[in-house]
Specification:
By secondary structure, the protein is an alpha+beta fold. The chain has one domain (6-235): Clam (outer membrane lipoprotein receptor (LolB), chain A), CATH 2.50.20. Helix content is 21%, strand content 37%. It contains seven helices and 15 strands. The protein has a seven-stranded antiparallel β-sheet. Strands 7-8-9-10-11-14 form a six-stranded antiparallel β-sheet, with helices on one face. Strand 3 (59-63) and strand 4 form a beta hairpin. The longest helix is centred in the middle third of the chain and has 16 residues, at 114-129. It is globular and about 45 Å long. The termini are far apart.
């Protein structure tokens, strides 16, 4: 196992510690989010969507994903929209490649369908929710750029915004303060950051609260957006099924 840098260990400890993240299996959150990516790609915002994310693998469920109360299912290699009775309405294999090549890639520069949004939101939430666990993965190369600043190189096998990303920690708490990346599936000019203005807490576990403001990393000032996660909980180490433990605001 790779030894964590001082900054990586500081972040891991701030978010509950190694034992918690190695022994937990999933995160269950109630999410409302709106912002420039939704408007740019002509997608409806998320309003009180239950997002259930596995920790060890990039698998995320969205309930519901549309007005018909279908579910969205994200995995690294496939996206699906599933009816309440379990029947698959539509599925798409290798969804990431379709953002970049041919007529399919051209269409996605203009607008997305709901499967595209399942892919984008799926990998984004998996990365955001499981960040402390990502510090423990052998397939991600972490390095310390300076005290309280981490850089990560992601492998091609993991779905994420881009291969190279930077994470800024609060020097006093070790909690995430800013996350810099390029949203490749939106476009090479989608140079952005999430500025975490505050954290909430669930049973002593901190999580980024309703205050994540995306900004253009080239121009500086945050752009207004609404992003809230009213609950975040994990099963396994906490000894309860996440759906039962899920508190509602």
């Amino acid at each position: 196992m790779t030894k964590l840098t001082g900054t990586a260990q500081k972040m891991l400890d701030a978010y509950g510690g190694e034992d918690l993240w190695r022994n937990s299996t999933k995160i269950d959150a109630l999410v409302s989010v709106n912002g420039w990516a939704f408007r740019l790609k002509r997608q409806r915002p998320f309003r009180e969507v239950q997002v259930v994310s596995q920790i060890a693998n990039p698998v995320v469920d969205f309930k519901p994903i549309d007005r018909s109360h279908n579910f969205g299912v994200f995995t690294a290699n496939e996206t699906r929209i599933v009816q309440g009775d379990g029947q698959i309405r539509v599925r798409r294999a290798e969804p990431r490649a379709q953002f970049f090549y041919g007529v399919a890639g051209l269409r996605r520069k203009l607008w997305w369908d709901r499967l595209d949004m399942v892919y984008f939101a799926g990998y984004a939430f998996w990365n955001y929710f499981t960040l402390p666990a990502l510090l423990l993965r052998e397939d991600i190369y972490w390095r310390e750029l300076s005290p309280n600043v981490l850089a990560a190189t992601f492998p091609d096998s993991l779905p994420t915004h881009c291969r190279e990303q930077v994470f800024h920690l609060d020097p006093n708490t070790g909690l995430l303060r800013q996350h810099d990346y390029v949203a490749d599936v939106i476009g090479r000019r989608a140079v952005a950051a999430h500025v975490i203005q505050e954290h909430g807490e669930w049973k002593g576990l901190p999580y980024p609260a309703p205050a994540s403001s995306p900004r253009d990393a080239r121009t500086g000032p945050p752009r207004r957006a609404r992003c809230s996660s009213t609950s975040r909980c994990m099963n396994g180490a906490l000894g309860r099924d996440a759906r039962q433990a899920w508190p509602k605001a």
